[in-house]
Design brief:
The protein is of the alpha/beta class. It folds into 2 domains: 260 residues, Zn peptidases (Aminopeptidase), CATH 3.40.630.10; 55 residues, OB fold (Dihydrolipoamide Acetyltransferase, E2P), CATH 2.40.50.630. Helix content is 24%, strand content 28%. The chain has 8 helices and 16 strands. The strands form 2 sheets. The chain has a 13-stranded mixed beta sheet with strand order 1-2-3-5-4-6-9-7-8-10-16-15-12, with helices on both faces. A 3-stranded antiparallel beta sheet has the order 11-13-14, with no helix packed on it. Helix 5 runs parallel beside helix 7. The radius of gyration is 20 Å and the shape is globular. The protein starts with a helix and ends in a 7-residue tail after the last strand. The relative contact order is 0.13. The protein binds zinc ion (ZN).
């Protein structure tokens, strides 16, 4: 398998041909970079001629139909394998849910990005492909991060189901004891991320698990709207690609200045949870993420009970009524330039 990767430099094709599992293998590229295949969609590169200063996880395809970040990561892997990108840092690439990439769907049995931080082992829910995959991905991330005590970074790359008033935005995991870093926000901002949403509670997302378990600087990064393979305009991700190349190929963290006038900070004020099967939003499926409402405007209803905007400027992100009862149907956020950063 690894020989095929080294010859053809297409890890995505190899992954999709072996979507459930692949035997571990390793090799060295031209004496300078070790490449380790850990499983289907899981690949680790370690530079051998330098002591890396950070361990970086770049995950994509946690939802199989979110193809732009998968293509971006496959290009980065191709550049490393073909020696056009020489690493100074250790990096793990993850294509999260290969069977769903083959199916062109968000998931097979359930949303993989609700199964991390141990939720995959919930004894009250029957196991399935996503639960097994979440358990394995958590174990791989642990093995990757715990190998050394370096700065840990995890960018979990997605695209959103609907359009957004901010084309690219990031979700910053809840970490009450430590403000998020201006350095990280400036880096993502230089990569084209326009808005940052500070989460208000623990979750079971991939980025939250890396943040809380390994103190990684971890983010869920939304890079535009879902499109099928071949229909992505990757020029829109040129800045992201460029910043990731610098991150991987230089010893120092990319030097960028935090510019508060170039981004918007949002605070999550509440989650709207679906309590009954008839939960429905009062706006169209085309409503972009971050659309603002006036206080008292009707947002949704269930069982004849109205759910209204609690304050002026309250905006809705990730609305999705087609989820199981008990799950989050949307996040409500407000812009808040006074969020503390370090
Ligand atoms: Zn996603």
């Amino acid at each position: 398998m690894l020989q095929q990767l080294l010859q053809q430099a297409n890890f995505l094709a190899l992954t999709l041909a072996n979507p459930v599992s692949m035997a571990a293998e390793q090799a060295v590229i031209a004496g300078h970079t070790r490449v380790e295949l850990w499983d289907s969609g899981v690949l680790v590169f370690t530079p051998l001629h330098t002591e890396a200063t950070r361990d970086i996880v770049l995950s994509s395809g946690i939802h199989g139909n979110e193809t732009a970040p998968i293509e971006l990561c496959n290009q980065l892997i191709q550049a490393i394998v073909s020696q056009n990108l020489l690493l100074q840092q250790r990096v793990m690439f993850i294509f999260g849910n290969p069977p769903t990439i083959n199916n062109h769907t968000r998931f097979v049995s359930e949303n993989l990005n609700r199964l991390f931080n141990g939720e995959h082992a919930n004894p009250h829910v029957a196991s399935n492909g996503e639960r097994l995959r979440a358990a394995r991905l958590e174990a791989y991330v642990e093995r990757f991060f715990m190998a050394a005590d370096r700065q840990r970074l995890h960018y979990d790359l997605h695209t959103a189901i609907r359009a957004s008033r901010h084309e690219r935005f990031a979700v910053c995991p809840y970490r009450p004891d430590k403000p998020h870093l201006k350095q990280q926000l400036a880096f993502l901002n230089a990569a084209g991320v326009e808005a940052f949403l500070m989460h208000h509670e623990p979750t079971t997302t991939f980025s939250y698990a890396s943040s809380t378990k390994y103190q990684a600087e971890a983010f869920t990064v939304e890079l535009g709207k879902v499109m099928p393979f071949g229909q992505n305009d990757l020029t829109k991700l040129a800045a992201m690609r460029q910043m990731l190349v610098v991150l991987l190929s230089e010893r120092e963290f990319p030097r960028v200045t935090y510019q508060p006038d170039k981004l918007v900070l949002y605070r999550v004020c509440r989650s709207l949870n679906k309590h009954y099967a008839d939960f429905a939003f009062n706006f169209s499926n085309e409503l972009p993420n971050f659309t603002q409402f006036a206080k008292g405007e009707l947002l949704a209803q269930e069982q004849g009970i109205a759910i209204t905007a609690a304050q002026d400027g309250e905006a809705i992100v990730f609305p999705n009524a087609q989820i199981p009862v008990g799950q989050r149907a949307a996040l409500c956020v407000v812009a808040d330039p006074a969020i503390p950063l370090a």
